[in-house]
UniProtKB/TrEMBL annotation:
Enzyme Commission (EC) number: 2.7.13.3
Every HAMP domain range: 222-275
Subcellular location: Cell membrane
Protein name: histidine kinase
Alphabetized GO MF terms: kinase activity
Span of domain Histidine kinase: 283-493
Membrane-crossing residue ranges in chain numbering: 20-38, 201-225
Catalytic activity: ATP + protein L-histidine = ADP + protein N-phospho-L-histidine
Keywords, alphabetical: Kinase, Membrane, Phosphoprotein, Transferase, Transmembrane, Transmembrane helix, Two-component regulatory system
Naturally occurring in which organism (per UniProt): Streptomyces viridosporus T7A
Annotated InterPro entries: HAMP_dom, HATPase_C_sf, HATPase_dom, His_kinase_dom, HisK_dim/P_dom, HisK_dim/P_sf, Sig_transdc_His_kin-like_C, TCS_sensor_his_kinase
């Protein structure tokens, strides 16, 4: 799959749209959970309210029966009063009267299914049971409430006619030994209607809320990303040849401020790198032009006056300048490889003491009478490339040999977790203000000396880059006499201990 193609085509590319969609999705999940909880809680509370109303109606029915009064058929809730020894209902209403009053009562009498409820010491008690309203041919609903064939929670309470007296029992149409039972049917219709209405309100409010949340998230992110868009537009105008533009850092102190600061730091690094590159190219061209000019002038003079030319001297000059060009080209190629920051391949364990001792013995000191010594007490192992360590140390010795008056001393010692190697010469030293500048490329402090003796000006820069590649440091240590370069690299275990 093409890396530029989105993985999900339906997923928006805009950060604003993604934020709005994510906010709406999260809000939808939260609202669904809240809606589910509200739905069940409203239904539960509505059912409790309906049960409380049914209980109050049942209490009113019981009070009327105890007074010997036949309850009226007009009721907001379905009810029926039955009695033992009586075929028809004592009273009914609220929809139960839609059954034929002259037919048998709908709900069972106390002796048919249930015993009287236990007396718990309260003034009165009631029982709630699920009962199915039977389907009968004499049922003719007139108010639109069809109870037949459905099961409802039913509240009921018993009243003994013997406790009422013969007159009240006679007024109710029951015998003195009969038991009356008052039923009140608990209809869930009200709770369901309230819950349904609440669900509708929640659904509409939720949809409106989701739209508002998505819109708020969209415009909030849009406003928040305005500084980012400004940064993007300004950064797009930056080129490698002219990275001088800088983005405006907001004063709010939020993440955009950190982003702007980071981008400005990156642009500054690019600017510094571009300046170093331009300076490096200019210096390299200048360094290459000097030996080429000398070589070309020598050859042109020899060709112009062949009979008066000292050809051995001309060949010697050409060879010397060619060697300088070759050395300069090798240094430039090495710096180019170091600038790629490629990791060192297959690092080895190198004994810097043995390396320093070998270079001290083999280093040619034919031009001037110099003494080169190596002072070390024990093997000093470090991990890295042996050729790179040799090039680093050779560059330090070359630099010391150009400036030393009589003596160069190399010391190698183990110091805690580091190997410390120093190259000290007894030359004129380096001014304190130039302690870091000498590690820059093509920097030579003694401009008066000949360029043949002064080198290319890349040795110390290459040495420091090699030190950094081996996770070490190369600095100029303070000394009262001469210059002392100190190399620190991580110490490694001996080969026989690995």
């Amino acid at each position: 799959m093409n890396a530029t193609e989105p993985r999900c085509r339906w997923w928006p590319r805009s950060v604003r749209a993604r934020a709005a969609l994510a906010a709406a999705s999260a809000a939808a999940v939260i609202l669904v959970g809240i809606g589910w909880w509200v739905h069940h809680d409203v239904y539960r509370q509505s059912t409790q309210i309906a049960e409380e109303q049914a209980r109050e109606n049942l209490l009113a029915l019981v009070d009327q029966l105890k007074e010997g009064v036949v309850p009226s058929g007009r009721s907001a809730v379905p009810y029926e009063v039955v009695a033992t020894g009586r075929r028809t209902a004592v009273a009914s209403g609220g929809g139960m009267e839609d059954f034929d009053p002259g037919a048998r009562h709908v709900l069972p009498t106390p002796s048919a299914l249930f015993a009287p409820p236990p007396n718990d010491g309260a003034e009165w008690g009631y029982t709630i049971r699920p009962l199915r309203i039977p389907v009968r041919h004499d049922h003719h609903p007139g108010n639109g409430l069809d109870l037949a064939g459905r099961t409802y929670p039913v509240l009921y309470a018993d009243v003994r006619a013997g406790e009422l007296g013969s007159d009240k029992a006679a007024a109710l149409g029951v015998t003195a030994d009969a038991t009356l039972r008052a039923y009140v049917v608990l209809l869930p219709d009200t709770a369901e209607a309230i819950t349904s209405t609440t669900d509708g309100l929640l659904l509409r409010a939720g949809l409106v809320g989701l739209v508002l949340i998505a819109a708020a998230a969209y415009f909030t992110v849009r406003i928040a990303l305005r500084p980012v868009e400004a940064i993007r537009a300004l950064t797009a105008s930056v080129t490698a040849s002219d990275p001088r533009e800088r983005v405006t850092v907001p004063a709010t102190g939020h993440e955009i401020t950190a982003l702007a600061t980071t981008i400005n730091t990156t642009l500054q690094r690019l600017d510094d790198a571009a300046a170093r590159q331009r300076r490096f190219v200019a210096d390299a061209a200048h360094e290459l032009r000097s030996p080429l000019t000398t070589l070309l002038a020598s050859l042109e003079v020899a060709l112009a006056y062949p009979e008066r030319t000292d050809w051995p001297a001309t060949a010697t000059t050409a060879a010397r300048q060619t060697r300088r060009l070759h050395s300069l080209a090798e240094d430039l190629l090495l710096l180019a490889r170091l600038d790629t920051r490629a990791p060192a391949a297959d690092p080895e364990t190198v004994d810097l003491t043995a390396l320093a001792s070998r270079l001290a013995e083999q280093y040619p000191l034919t031009e001037r009478p110099l003494t080169l010594t190596c002072d070390s007490t024990a093997p000093a192992y470090a991990r890295g490339n042996p050729d790179a360590y040799e090039r680093l140390l050779r560059n330090l010795i070359d630099n010391a040999a150009r400036h030393a008056a009589h003596r160069i001393q190399i010391t190698v010692r183990n110091q805690d977790a580091w190997v410390v190697l120093t190259v000290h010469d007894d030359g004129p030293g380096v001014p304190t203000e130039d302690a870091e500048r000498i590690f820059e490329r093509f920097v030579r402090l003694d401009d008066a000396r000949s360029r043949d003796r002064g080198g290319t000006g890349l040795g110390l820069a290459i040495a420091r880059d090699l030190a950094h590649r081996h996770r070490g440091t190369l600095t100029l240590a303070p000394r009262t006499l001469g210059a002392c370069f100190e190399l620190r690299v991580p110490r490694a275990s001996a080969p026989d201990e690995e």
